[in-house]
Every structure is written in structure tokens, then in C-alpha cells.
Amino acid sequence: MKAMFNTHEGSGQSGTQRVIESALPDSTVLQGLAIQGKTAQEKRNPYP
User: Fold this and answer.
1) CA of 39: how far to CAs of 4, 23, 42, 46, 47, in Å?
2) Residues 2-29: pLDDT tens digits?
3) Contact status, residue 7 vs residue 37, Cβ threshold 8 Å
4) Contact status, residue 35 vs residue 6, Cβ threshold 8 Å
5) Which residues, in sequence order, are CB contacts of 21 under 8 Å at separation 6+?
């Protein structure tokens, strides 16, 4: 079972889920999590 996440600047998953499913045909790929890049950058270190 695989779970993925990616960052983006407005495109969301933008086909990433399908690419991973195609690359791993014998795996169960869970619904991915898309995080806007700016949010990831701002929240990357919540414990300074």
C-alpha cells in the first residue's frame, strides 16, 4: 500500500496520482495529499 503527497502552486494533484498508479501497477495507491507550496514552506518548521 502506498500513500503520496506533493506540493504545488495551484495545480493540485495535476495527474500525479495517475502517474504513480501507472508506475506501480501491483500496488494499492491511496488517495494522495496535495499541499500548496507556499503553505508547506510557511509550515515546514512548526517547532523553531
Assistant:
1) 17, 28, 5, 12, 16
2) 787 888 888 877 888 889 899 999 999 8
3) yes
4) yes
5) 29
Q: Which three cell numbers stand for residue 21?
A: 498508479
- Is residue 29 a contact partner of residue 16, using CB atoms and an 8 Å limit? no
Query: Left if phi > 0, otherwise alpha if psi is -120 to 50, otherwise beta: which for 30?
Result: beta
Q: Would you state the torsion angle of the CA atoms of residues 28, 30, 36, 38, taken in this order, to the nearest 10 degrees?
A: -80
Q: What cell does 18 get? A: 495517475
Dihedral of CA 16/6/33/23: which sign? positive
Structure pTM?
Answer: 0.61
